[in-house]
């Protein structure tokens, strides 16, 4: 018997990546999700093949699915000053797409290596201001395998420097583990500053520092204390999205509806107790 969790359930479409976009939407609907996170490369491929944003929005509405985030804005944090206007233009285009699909947030990826934190924070604020004009909020993500910006603390520092009331963070148990951080850091995050929490597990092998996105496993199939993780989220008063995000090639070969369904069941098992 499940005791209700305060969370809302979303499917990040990387979990069923090879399926065509409309099939991904149908899989999320059929498996019982309330939300779906869409990737911009999928959206752009759909548009290039003759689809329209209006058609996509209508498929989402027809499936009763909300779009908590679209993924992602890249290059903005650490590009050369001379490149920034061009990068900002491409971010604007993605933010326009996100807004027209009804997304509240768009995920803003971190720098790919060593980065100037102050400059990145300043640019994040600019990105937020642009996004709010368009109607969507860029949210700062950290990646466990990126130098420097790979923990909750490192993103909170950027948010503090950016100093904007709509600044938010993207959480992910895999990235917290991979970056060498601790789930206990969740207690320092105001719930209003969390755009979404991705959800997944990590295997005990290979060693932490050798793990990458493809190594992620279904919740409950790895060694992370996900009951502890969701318990901390409840404790700080977070009642937003948990979104299943894996990049597991074995799952990509399976039936997308089945993968989505099993994933939702496994998320609920970890989060409802």
Describe the 3D structure.
- The mean pLDDT is 96.
- The chain has a single domain, classed as TIM Barrel.
- The longest helix is centred in the middle third of the chain and has 18 residues.
- The chain has an eight-stranded parallel β-barrel, surrounded by five helices.
- It is 41% helix and 14% strand.
- The chain has ten helices and eight strands.
- The N and C termini lie close together (9 Å).
Rough outline = globular
Taking all Cα atoms into account, the compactness measure Rg is 18 Å
User: Mean pLDDT, nearest integer?
Assistant: 96
Q: Strand pairing plus helix content: what structural class?
A: alpha/beta
Can you summarize the main beta sheet?
8 strands, parallel, barrel
User: Could you name the CATH topology?
Assistant: TIM Barrel
CATH architecture: Alpha-Beta Barrel
Widest sheet: strand ordering:
1-2-3-4-5-6-7-8
Keywords, please?
273 residues, alpha/beta, TIM Barrel, eight-stranded parallel barrel
Gist of the model:
The protein is α/β, with parallel strands linked by helices. It has helices spanning 21-31, 40-48, 53-62, 84-100, 117-134, 152-162, 173-178, 226-236, 249-252, 256-271; strands spanning 8-12, 35-39, 69-73, 105-108, 137-141, 169-171, 194-199, 241-244.
Topology overview:
Elements (H helix, E strand, L loop, with lengths): L7 E5 L8 H11 L3 E5 H9 L4 H10 L6 E5 L10 H17 L4 E4 L8 H18 L2 E5 L10 H11 L6 E3 L1 H6 L15 E6 L26 H11 L4 E4 L4 H4 L3 H16 L2
Parallel strand pairs: 1-2, 1-8, 2-3, 3-4, 4-5, 5-6, 6-7, 7-8
């Amino acid at each position: 018997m499940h005791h209700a969790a305060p969370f809302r359930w979303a499917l990040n479409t990387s979990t069923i990546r090879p399926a065509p976009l409309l099939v991904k939407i149908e899989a999320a609907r059929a498996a019982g999700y309330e939300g779906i996170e869409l990737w911009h490369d999928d959206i752009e491929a759909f548009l290039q093949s003759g689809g329209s944003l209006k058609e996509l929005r209508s498929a989402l509405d027809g499936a009763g699915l909300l779009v908590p985030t679209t993924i992602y804005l890249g290059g903005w944090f650490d590009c050369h000053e001379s490149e920034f206007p061009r990068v900002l233009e491409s971010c604007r285009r993605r933010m326009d797409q996100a807004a027209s699909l009804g997304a509240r947030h768009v995920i803003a990826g971190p720098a790919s290596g060593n980065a100037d934190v102050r400059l990145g924070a300043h640019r994040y604020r600019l990105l937020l201001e642009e996004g709010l004009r368009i109607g969507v909020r860029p949210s700062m993500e950290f990646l466990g395998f990126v130098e420097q910006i790979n923990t909750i603390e490192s993103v909170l520092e950027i948010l503090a420097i950016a100093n904007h009331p709509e600044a938010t963070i993207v959480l992910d148990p895999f990235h917290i583990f991979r970056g060498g951080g601790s789930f206990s850091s969740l207690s320092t995050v105001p719930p209003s500053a969390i755009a979404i929490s991705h959800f997944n597990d990590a295997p005990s092998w290979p060693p932490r520092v050798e793990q990458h996105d493809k190594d992620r496993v279904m919740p409950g199939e790895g060694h992370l204390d996900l009951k502890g993780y969701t318990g901390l989220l409840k404790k700080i008063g977070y009642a937003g999205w948990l979104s299943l995000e894996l990049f597991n090639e074995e799952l990509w070969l399976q039936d997308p509806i089945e993968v989505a369904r099993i994933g939702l069941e496994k998320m609920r098992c970890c989060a409802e107790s």
